[in-house]
Amino acid sequence: MRTANQYFEDLKKMRSNVYIGGDRVSRDDSRLLPNINIIKTTFELAQHTDWEGLITARSSLTGKKINRFTHLPQNPLDLMQKQKMIRLTATRTGGCIQRCMGQDALCALSVATKEIDEKFGTGYHERFMNYIRDYQERDLAGACAQTDMKGDRSKRPFEQEDPDAYVHVVEKKSDGIVVSGVKISITMAAIADEIIVVPTRALTKHDKDFAVAFAIPADWDNIRLVTRPVYIREKKKFKSPFAEMGASESVIVFDNTFIPMERVFMCGEWEFGRRLALLFADSHRFSYTGCKPAVSDILCGATALIAEANDIEKAPHVREKLSEFIGVGELAYAAGIAAALYGERASSGTFCPNEMYANIGRRLMGENIYHEFNILTEIAGGLAVTLPFEDDFLAKETEQDLKKLMKRNPKLSYENSCHAWRFVEDLAASSMAVWYQIAGVHGGGSPIMETITLNINTDYEAKKDIAKYLAGINEELDQSKEIKTKPNQIK
Amino acid sequence: MRTANQYFEDLKKMRSNVYIGGDRVSRDDSRLLPNINIIKTTFELAQHTDWEGLITARSSLTGKKINRFTHLPQNPLDLMQKQKMIRLTATRTGGCIQRCMGQDALCALSVATKEIDEKFGTGYHERFMNYIRDYQERDLAGACAQTDMKGDRSKRPFEQEDPDAYVHVVEKKSDGIVVSGVKISITMAAIADEIIVVPTRALTKHDKDFAVAFAIPADWDNIRLVTRPVYIREKKKFKSPFAEMGASESVIVFDNTFIPMERVFMCGEWEFGRRLALLFADSHRFSYTGCKPAVSDILCGATALIAEANDIEKAPHVREKLSEFIGVGELAYAAGIAAALYGERASSGTFCPNEMYANIGRRLMGENIYHEFNILTEIAGGLAVTLPFEDDFLAKETEQDLKKLMKRNPKLSYENSCHAWRFVEDLAASSMAVWYQIAGVHGGGSPIMETITLNINTDYEAKKDIAKYLAGINEELDQSKEIKTKPNQIK
Amino acid sequence: MRTANQYFEDLKKMRSNVYIGGDRVSRDDSRLLPNINIIKTTFELAQHTDWEGLITARSSLTGKKINRFTHLPQNPLDLMQKQKMIRLTATRTGGCIQRCMGQDALCALSVATKEIDEKFGTGYHERFMNYIRDYQERDLAGACAQTDMKGDRSKRPFEQEDPDAYVHVVEKKSDGIVVSGVKISITMAAIADEIIVVPTRALTKHDKDFAVAFAIPADWDNIRLVTRPVYIREKKKFKSPFAEMGASESVIVFDNTFIPMERVFMCGEWEFGRRLALLFADSHRFSYTGCKPAVSDILCGATALIAEANDIEKAPHVREKLSEFIGVGELAYAAGIAAALYGERASSGTFCPNEMYANIGRRLMGENIYHEFNILTEIAGGLAVTLPFEDDFLAKETEQDLKKLMKRNPKLSYENSCHAWRFVEDLAASSMAVWYQIAGVHGGGSPIMETITLNINTDYEAKKDIAKYLAGINEELDQSKEIKTKPNQIK
Amino acid sequence: MRTANQYFEDLKKMRSNVYIGGDRVSRDDSRLLPNINIIKTTFELAQHTDWEGLITARSSLTGKKINRFTHLPQNPLDLMQKQKMIRLTATRTGGCIQRCMGQDALCALSVATKEIDEKFGTGYHERFMNYIRDYQERDLAGACAQTDMKGDRSKRPFEQEDPDAYVHVVEKKSDGIVVSGVKISITMAAIADEIIVVPTRALTKHDKDFAVAFAIPADWDNIRLVTRPVYIREKKKFKSPFAEMGASESVIVFDNTFIPMERVFMCGEWEFGRRLALLFADSHRFSYTGCKPAVSDILCGATALIAEANDIEKAPHVREKLSEFIGVGELAYAAGIAAALYGERASSGTFCPNEMYANIGRRLMGENIYHEFNILTEIAGGLAVTLPFEDDFLAKETEQDLKKLMKRNPKLSYENSCHAWRFVEDLAASSMAVWYQIAGVHGGGSPIMETITLNINTDYEAKKDIAKYLAGINEELDQSKEIKTKPNQIK
Lengths: 491, 491, 491, 491
Hints:
The structure is a homotetramer of 491-residue chains. With 491 residues, the first copy, chain A, is α+β, with helices and mostly antiparallel strands. The first copy, chain A, has helices spanning 4-12, 33-46, 76-93, 100-120, 124-137, 273-309, 316-341, 355-380, 383-386, 390-394, 396-405, 414-428, 431-442, 447-457, 460-471, 480-484, and strands at 18-20, 23-25, 56-58, 65-67, 142-145, 168-173, 176-187, 194-197, 212-217, 223-230, 247-260, 264-267, 344-345, 351-352. Chain A contains 16 helices and 14 strands. In chain A, helix 3 packs across helix 6, helix 3 (76-93) packs antiparallel against helix 7 (316-341) and helix 4 runs antiparallel to helix 6 (273-309). The longest helix of chain A has 37 residues, at 273-309. Chain A is globular. The mean pLDDT of chain A is 96. Chains in contact: A-B, A-C, A-D, B-C, B-D, C-D. Chains A and D meet through strand 7, strand 10, strand 11, helix 8 and helix 9 of A and strand 7, strand 10, strand 11, helix 8 and helix 9 of D.
């Protein structure tokens, strides 16, 4: 397993194909460092004995110890460990751990390549298994590029005026394919080793060229990344882990990019567009049942901390509000547990979370994220957004005035009070705050997507059968099928 | 295992100590039959091969096949099977199966008697194990009597002007004890074989006499039940299972009632008042993670059915509303699964659900029950409460007029349309509707009780530690303890 | 103005064309008395000097003092007085005063007949003014029959297989018209003097025959009412005004009914179908900004009363919950005030409420009614639905047991405690409860209808203009039009 | 009336007593310009004929035309015009107009000085009237400084360890007083002409020294402002009014500041602490019934605009969401109208809004602000927070790639699409977004403060009387008092 430093050294060697604010920059640009710090965390903790077995796993391919972020889950416990790993690591980075995205793409591809082969006699699965063996061996961090630019949303890919609206095959060669098109809103792409491309939607036979999946180094020829980093004002004195973490989203431009054949995992099989898109989406929504509870944990902790700073921690309305975080976070976490237990083993051996539970868990969090920020704001008060800048706390002329301001709870030292307020500002009243809000709604699929998925998968006729039985419309209610379904065992 | 009929025959033999509407009545009073029908369901299904292993279990005491409603769960799968049994049987009775209540009292007593013995060297556990062996053997249905009359709520039991505000020991004899006091809102007591009494709250050393638990036949000497049955207008033609089910709540008066020693399971150990009260409450809240999803299933099915009757089933806003039922019901069910998996084996061997997950699951349902009725009403329209009486549909002079009214969706026959509308009326616009609403909020503990339990059990300091770590207040965040916690295995 | 008794005497003289539960009954059937009691209230209070000028008004036609429920509002103050009258009278009857419905139909017809005449040179308005003069003079109570049976909802009236799905003209004669069809869910029709019929929806030129409006005595030849009364269990000892009030809904069958020409107010002018339907709907939604705050007042009062009975009135969470009723009720009331002030005088002189404010006020209440019941239930506890029947409180054998039960707050007498609990049972756990819930959602138009009306009437382009201005898309934002809009003066 | 430029010139002449980020800065510091632009708007529009009579008024003191932001409302129409002025001007600045704050302080002082004089025979009112005459004449912009630093919140002012926790009188001299203490979270103080100080809470006789109110130029001796400005990244090409607006909050340090007697409006009359604090709060909450609907208008317009950009404007779920903005915004606006109409004329002649309606209006908005941002985010999608920086749209190497990205709705030009997306980013995903969120909750008093005010002012006993009447506890319900209350006339 790589160290955090090795990962960073590898990044620095990459070709400079990232653009930020009008400039082409190398991957150690200071605006990317906060995002790099998040990924570094996944390498650091893997070196720590406390985390053994949680952030590490035995590879199902080689039996070797690997970083769990590169692992293909094989059973319910694997999924539950993944969920727990995400929750706990995300509390270290402020709510998002990011590296799960690549893992979810790998899980999806491990399943889909097998199923495509089974249907069409193609050879994608072996090719993919070679790829992931190397990925585990080299302990890579991949970004999954799913969301296309989409263009006119009322039209299918093949109908778009500009074919680049969706990534597609431009040319097939003996040793590879040439692709073009633009992916957008791709988190961590600018600091990933690899980019893993999967389709974003169901496809028709006319969309054959858009049925394409592959993985490629992020600095490959003819790839450009236009990147928007997000980070918090650097601290001079009141430094904190949270203030050093950040994110970045990229527009990824494939401009007649050549993909060598051994890295192509789908090419033309439009019948599997929807399947592959959903395999990734469901796996990733399951991951959110780990990180979103972490976000609730953090917001809950911050609310409790600032209630202490305001010396109102024991007030009944504060206690009631705190319990709301537990309700939301733990319900989503429970949905993840149920998704693990009622999951399904695919023909490839990869264990996939139950679609319904993964979706209701993710949806709950997406529906509540703004409300959770609202609670923090309610308890913190306006000071979160009116606090003078750190420099004023350090300047001679104003330091004494502001020291007074920090004296609310006599039990809290001036230093800790500054840390607490600065943290709440960073959390609730910064560019990171809106990033967490909007990512909280849309990351991994917005509530409306989850509702659609739920509605497709719910057997409403079975619910109606219950109503019909009770209404006296049918004489018998056949529940034998349901009765026989049991949860999977935990190994 | 008894048949439904044997259960009913046994009921009829009981002493007439039930009062309804000013009269003393026998247990086959027509107003009690709907409630009896619910309990009968638990006996009927146990005879059915489809339900083998779900509504039946192997006794942990005797190894014999028993009705699972008399079983003490021994592991996570037992809890999950109990949850599933409750959900599926409750869809047959309209949302409440009632017999779980007695089972939850038995689970609580199996744990508490052991723990009391361990602390005080008493002999309650063996006594209780003899009792439950007989209970399983005779396949009994017990009502748990927990909620006391309470009197002035600002005072503790021993401070009450009227000591009968809480059930208490009046006299101790060599062969038993004499108790007095009043329990209220006790579901199914009037049609139960046994009444199982447990304390309702934490007690102090001054409340010694109120620390009492026992089980006794429901028609025992010096016990009076003042009972309020609830049921739906009987149907002449458009009969339905739902319209034949009902409930009943009793005020149970203990008036110098003698309890033989072998049926006394706690007597004076006030230190265990809170523990026993919570053991029952948590076990019962876990049961609600089974029945409340059933209520959602029924309301969902009814909404889908009436949307079909209104020919608007495919409308986007209807689909969106339907998905809300899935969200609420399945999140609560998932909370139950998590409660099972993260439960704890007590020293007696009984497996207890995780308190936090049991409470957030139950709370979610209690917070949403009125909203769920709102959805049904929204889609059904006003007709649910303005539909003419069944007799007008049967009377010559008006039958033809009303037949027209039932023609909304041409695909639905007149008969089925009548059944559907009558069912929605019974479900949403009847005395049963308000019973389900109010029981949905308060049965097994209201949301505010669950919030209190959650707050007592949540380690907010650990959440604050996360916030402090991110804020830079502490250097390290010790997560090793959490990391090592794993779910229990499913056998 | 008639006395309550005169109204009742007039009812008793009517032809027996009401059917309840399979029987044809006269209008003094005991099941109709509770509904009659509501309408009686409007006559009783009009005799009371306290209510002078509120429940009475000066007729705009004759200058005579009339019952305001027969008055055509002429200015904003008239609307505000109407709103206040409805709120205050509704607190006397338990939340619904019903007689406003007829008034709203008259307002709508006063406007539409004039507008139809203006467009088509017809003579409806004079005919209608003669009618209303007589209506005011005789102090009548009319039910508005709007909602048709509708049949297959995906089809327009003229497309229906059964033309009776909508009331329509069957034949035109020199002295009148013949109509057929079925209206449903018509509140108070069985105890009204008159039935006032208006169309329920927008019509096309093919629906000409369905464009019909008229008023007719409720016992007219060839009219049948199939009626569903709703009322509360009669009290023996703990009598109360609330328990004596009730409602009734009727299916009204027009079976080749002859309508004399002087009572026909629209006949064939399909272009005004939507206009007339909305004029009634908006006027009636405005009325709900009076009665729905009354419902909130009653639920708030009941919650406060039962909190007192439970001796928890000063608890912070109770206080917080109580304030929610004020928020909902007063916001809706404020919407009514704004609707009055920003209303519009029609060409006939009738003053119509502002459509947007009437709709947002009504919608708010419809969205919150179940939630308001939830609050009451939350504070009352389960006893609301488990309280033994009144007869058990009066029976010798159980009276003493139950007296104990009523001792919660030592300051409340046994009698008052019984009244309070019985009232909460009647309010939250009776057939009246579900009637108020469902009527609260759908009466006068459900939230979804109000949303549609809002969306039709909101100038979203103007909102977008604001966004465009701020976004720098347009250089100037023309607000001059808006600036000049002023509220109407209150006379 | 001053021009915008005159205002700015006057600012520039002020003594440099503002600190930002560690530096002492003059008032034309670039970080303050965005805030200055908001206040400038109030001067610019006053010069525009369209706005005549809305943003201008006739002074009740001099009869001269003045800027309405300096006017004391004399009747309901004055209040309604103020509300409308705030709503319309706020749509120009992005949601907050700020200058109302000073006006609300003046209204409060005009009432309180008179009432204090009436009780204690002091001479504050004349002194204040001289002050406001000058204020109107010179067309000043004042910031109201109410919120104190507060220190330990469980202690009263006089109990604080550090007396500076609340502004207080240090010394009384013949020609004035000397005050010390710190006010926090004071919007626009750094760019105001004057600072108007009022107490923040109810006071006891021990808090006499804290009962102090005065007005003083913002650059007066011994006043320091530590200011936190908030603004949006400046645009190079896609400029917009919204991006040029901003805010600033100041910590105001009074450090033995001398206040000349003619500017002292309260000094020691602790009995009026609560009254004056609430007079300001209620007046300001009323102002929020103007600006918060503007915020809803803007968010609604932005949502509609970005729905158009996404070409989903007509989707049913979008339409439904849009109507929510109307519901929230117009209900709050209606509450303002009701507050105006049911307001009260104080003895000084100033017309004060009805406290209950002002509070429920403000509370509604505070409870919904995060939800409103949620709707915008939901419809906009993730792009709001992942959009590359403007510079990348202008850079040669990436311009063409990003142009493609903006082609979603073919009807929208590239330029307008850029403006629209940049605006949504600025609105929902910027430092301004969190400012509007937190100010939306806490500005002018948080929901919990409004609930407290509501609960103090609601006559819950009157609500209980209704319940008692209906429950049969009281024989009569005296409504004569309520009936006589009529709204105030609009002049």
